[in-house]
Structures are given as structure tokens and as C-alpha cells.
């Protein structure tokens, strides 16, 4: 495509995002963890709704999902289960996490873990394990962003330069405005993505079938390529066990940015209202998946499945829509990379460096802002330039590592007897197994590496917790008055009965 319009539209989006991100500060000082880290716990329901929605609808929606529809078929719809689950998790756990933060001063996921188990070491361990999953996710989004600039520029902006351009843009407003920048830019990006996805999807369906009825696409797939409409999917390289365990691992991965988003809300009620609305946004993925299915019969010989939506648009859609698709895809990537980079920097400073170096809160807040630079340019950028695997597989690997922190949450919300040593033993064992089954022997028996990790992690966590000292009863009671007040009352009644019988 020779027109300059797609690149101009895409770069215009970048400029607008930068302005919005910088203006989000609005004269406030960002020298505190509360302000830079969780926006002073001030976000209203609409902003929070778009923040969570745009953060979870990533480059996967515009590149990964169409790519997997193109290469695997209906297996792509596992994401519908995951997104529906995210809304339920936000509705149930979000208000509790907000109360933890508001009452106990938590600004990160790992700080809540350290407080529950009275162990800065455990908090640091959780932060480091979660950082690996978060880096994988940030890399995924950065690859998507860079590739968009490469395509929109007709190859004039190479992938390596696109990586640095996107990260540099994010660094400017993330340093300046922190979580407020993420909230404001994600609100803008969320609206843009919804409009672009449906405009591109409907136009693509019309160009392929002569109408706007999605069913015609699937009727043609059924007639010509029926294997794409059966599970576990086309290609024969993915099993039922892999996809089942991938879904389970995804569900057990409580990623750090999600907690930060919940803690940024103005109230617990705000979170519940936003979570109730979330399913209305997730329809954004449907038209892009349909474009992937259109590619099966329109673009049968693509070298890279992740580019199917872009390739189809450039061949069949008006240049303005191509530019908007570029902007929408870039918005999806940036809206998801921002929170992960922010959470990595915030958690490393708060949960690893502050206790290790005994830093004050003021110094820690300044350090958190500065850390985004080495995280971006010394970790995320080199990995993104190396392009390790497909977008979807990067996502699944990241979730596999993140899920190993599950025991900490079990003990925070469901099991008062969980101990510091039990959680630590489970996380370490699960992490090592996940590393081994990701690198040395990838996904044995077709089962996701993270699931293997959990199979070792959870029994060890329970066994060690039962034979090691529990957390101080006062701390446990403090948490469970929020996490499970009815269960705490029942436990108190049982203790009183035991005392009565003993006397």
C-alpha cells in the first residue's frame, strides 16, 4: 500500500495518547506511592470500566486472536471463557482487594502478600515470580506495537526502532503521571478499540460475503474448511489437554496490574459496578476473530498468522480504515503494556528494594518512577526485538509463571491456616517445575507447563502449611474480616466451644 494515510493516522494516535497521558497529571505531585502507584485511589466507575477493559483487550485481540482463528479455528474461543471469568473475579475479589489497600495501605499485590504472611521475603519472592509473567506480557504487547509501525510505514520503521519508539512514548507519560496516565489513556484507547474493531470487522465481512451477516463467513468455512470448526482445532498440533490446562492456568493467574487497577478505584462499590459492565465491552473481540476466519479462504498462504487482520485490511479495505486498524491495534498493545510495566516497576521498588535496602517511602516512590526506564529498555526491549515465538504462546508462558503465586491468594481469601513457609515452598517448587517444563521438556503429555507446576505447588503448599507455624492470629483475623467475615465468625464460634468444653 503506497498511501501515507495509514502511517499518519497511526502516528496521530500516538501523539494524542502522549498528550492525554501527560495531561493526566493535572498539576499533582507524583512523589508518593499512593499517587503515582494507585492514582490516589480516586478512579470513578466509567474510567475504571475502560481501564480494566482496555487493559485486558490487548494486541491479542487485534493480532493474536485473528491469527489463532486463522491457524487453529474455533479453539480461539477459549478466550471467551477467560474474559467472562475476569469479570466474575473483578466482581467478587476486587472490592475485597480495595478494602485491603484502603485499610492496610497496600499499593501492590506483593505488599498484600507480605502483610498477610508477615514476611517481606515472601512478598519479594512473589514480586519476582510475578515480574517474570508480567515481563512476558509486556514483551508480547511491545512486539505487536512495533510490528504495527513496521507495517503502517511500509517497512521504513524497522521492528527494533518501533520497539524503542513505542516504549519511549509510554515512558514519557508513565514517568510523569503514573497510574493516572494509564487510566486516562486506557479510557481513550478503550473507546477507540471498540469503534475500530467493529468498523473493520463489518467492512471485512461485507467485502468477503457481500453482506454484514457473520454467519455467512462460518457457512463458507464449514463448506470448504470444516476442520477449522472442530476442536481441538486445525493443524493437529494442539490437544484437548493443552487447551483445557491453558484455560485453568489462565484462570488461576492473578496478574499484578489487575490488583493495582482495583486499588485505584474510589470505592469498593465502584469496582463492583465496573465489573458488572465488563461483559458489554468484551464483544470487541468478535469482529476481529471473524476477520481471522475470513483469512482462511481469502489469504490461504500467509507466512505469519498473527498478521492476518492487517494483511486483509491492506488488500481489501479503504486506506482510512487501514490507518484506524493500525491505530486501534497500537492502542490495544499500549493499553496493555502500560499497566504491566508500571506494576513491575512499582512492585520491584516497593516489595524487593525497599525492604532489602530499608528505603523510606519517599525514596521508594522516586525509585519506582525511575525503574520504568531500565525495565523498558534493558529487559522488555531486547526481548521484544528478539521476537520469541507467537504472540499467543508468549501470553500462555507468562500466565503459567504468574499462576504459581496461587497459594498466597488461597491463604488470603479462603484458608486461614496457610503459613508463610507453606506458601514459599509451593511457589518455589511450582516455579522450578514450570521453568523445566517450559524450556527443557515443553508441556509434557500435552499439558501446559504451568499446570504441571500447580500440581506440585498446591499439595506441597498444603502439607508444609499444616506442619509449620501459622501466621499470627491477629493478622489472620484482620484479613479475614474483609475476605470472609462469615467464615471468620464461624471459626470464632468453634474456638469458643472448644474453650467451653475445656473448662
Summarize it.
With 503 residues, the protein is mainly α. It has helices at residues 5-23, 33-38, 45-56, 59-71, 78-104, 109-117, 120-152, 159-209, 214-224, 240-251, 256-263, 268-281, 285-298, 308-316, 319-357, 361-386, 391-402, 406-413, 420-439, 449-467, 473-483, 485-502. The chain has one domain (5-387): Sodium/glucose cotransporter, CATH 1.20.1730.
> Could you give the distance between the termini?
86 Å
The figure for the number of domains is 1
The gyration radius over C-alpha positions equals 23 Å
What is the highest CATH level, the class? Mainly Alpha
Proper CATH architecture: Up-down Bundle
Number of strands: 0
Oligomer: single chain
Biggest sheet character: none
Supply the CATH superfamily name. Sodium/glucose cotransporter
Helix proportion of residues, in percent? over 70%
So how many helices?
A: 22
Structural class: mainly alpha
From the spread of the alpha carbons, the general shape counts as globular
Order of helices and strands: HHHHHHHHHHHHHHHHHHHHHH
Write down the CATH topology: Sodium/glucose cotransporter
Q: How much strand? A: under 5%
Low-confidence stretches: 496-503
Mean pLDDT: 88
Amino acid at each position: 500500500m503506497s498511501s501515507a494515510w495509514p502511517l499518519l493516522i497511526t502516528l496521530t494516535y500516538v501523539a494524542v495518547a502522549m498528550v492525554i497521558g501527560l495531561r493526566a497529571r493535572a498539576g499533582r505531585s507524583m512523589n508518593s506511592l499512593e499517587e503515582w502507584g494507585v492514582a490516589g485511589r480516586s478512579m470513578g466507575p466509567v474510567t475504571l470500566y475502560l481501564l480494566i477493559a482496555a487493559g485486558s483487550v490487548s494486541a491479542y485481540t487485534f493480532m493474536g486472536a485473528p491469527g489463532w482463528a486463522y491457524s487453529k479455528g474455533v479453539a480461539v474461543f477459549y478466550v471467551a471463557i477467560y474474559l467472562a471469568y475476569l469479570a466474575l473475579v473483578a466482581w467478587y475479589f476486587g472490592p475485597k482487594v480495595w478494602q485491603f489497600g484502603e485499610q492496610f495501605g497496600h499499593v501492590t499485590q506483593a505488599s498484600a502478600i507480605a502483610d498477610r504472611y508477615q514476611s517481606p521475603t515472601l512478598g519479594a519472592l512473589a514480586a519476582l515470580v510475578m515480574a517474570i509473567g508480567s515481563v512476558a506480557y509486556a514483551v508480547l504487547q511491545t512486539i505487536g506495537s512495533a510490528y504495527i509501525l513496521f507495517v503502517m510505514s511500509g517497512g521504513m520503521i524497522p521492528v527494533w526502532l518501533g520497539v524503542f519508539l513505542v516504549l519511549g512514548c509510554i515512558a514519557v507519560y508513565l514517568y510523569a503521571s503514573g497510574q493516572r496516565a494509564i487510566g486516562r489513556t486506557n479510557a481513550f484507547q478503550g473507546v477507540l478499540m471498540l469503534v475500530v474493531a467493529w468498523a473493520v470487522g463489518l467492512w471485512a465481512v461485507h467485502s468477503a460475503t457481500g453482506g454484514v451477516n457473520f454467519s455467512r463467513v462460518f457457512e463458507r468455512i464449514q463448506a470448504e474448511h470444516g476442520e477449522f470448526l472442530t476442536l481441538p482445532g486445525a493443524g493437529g498440533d494442539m490437544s484437548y489437554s493443552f487447551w483445557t490446562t491453558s484455560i485453568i492456568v489462565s484462570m488461576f493467574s492473578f496478574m499484578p496490574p489487575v490488583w493495582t487497577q482495583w486499588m485505584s478505584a474510589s470505592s469498593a462499590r465502584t469496582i463492583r459496578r465496573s465489573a458488572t459492565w465488563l461483559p458489554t465491552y468484551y464483544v470487541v473481540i468478535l469482529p476481529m476473530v471473524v476477520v481471522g476466519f475470513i483469512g482462511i479462504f481469502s489469504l490461504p498462504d500467509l507466512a505469519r498468522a498473527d498478521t492476518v487482520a492487517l494483511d486483509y485490511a491492506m488488500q481489501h479495505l479503504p486506506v482510512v480504515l487501514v490507518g484506524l486498524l493500525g491505530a486501534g491495534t497500537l492502542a490495544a498493545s499500549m493499553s496493555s503494556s502500560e499497566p504491566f510495566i508500571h506494576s513491575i516497576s512499582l512492585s520491584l521498588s516497593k516489595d524487593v528494594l525497599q525492604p532489602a535496602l530499608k528505603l523510606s517511602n519517599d525514596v521508594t516512590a522516586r525509585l519506582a518512577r525511575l525503574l520504568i526506564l531500565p525495565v523498558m529498555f534493558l529487559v522488555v526491549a531486547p526481548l521484544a526485538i528478539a521476537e520469541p515465538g507467537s504472540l499467543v504462546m508468549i501470553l500462555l508462558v507468562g500466565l503459567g509463571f504468574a499462576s504459581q503465586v496461587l497459594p498466597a491468594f488461597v491463604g488470603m481469601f479462603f484458608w486461614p491456616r496457610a503459613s508463610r513457609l507453606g506458601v514459599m515452598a509451593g511457589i518455589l517448587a511450582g516455579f522450578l517445575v514450570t521453568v523445566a517444563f517450559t524450556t527443557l521438556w515443553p508441556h509434557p503429555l500435552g499439558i501446559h507447563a504451568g499446570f504441571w507446576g500447580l500440581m506440585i505447588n498446591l499439595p506441597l503448599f498444603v502439607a508444609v502449611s499444616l506442619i509449620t507455624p501459622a501466621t499470627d492470629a491477629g493478622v489472620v483475623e484482620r484479613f479475614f474480616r474483609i475476605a470472609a467475615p462469615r467464615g471468620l465468625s464461624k471459626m470464632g464460634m468453634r474456638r469458643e466451644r472448644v474453650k467451653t468444653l475445656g473448662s
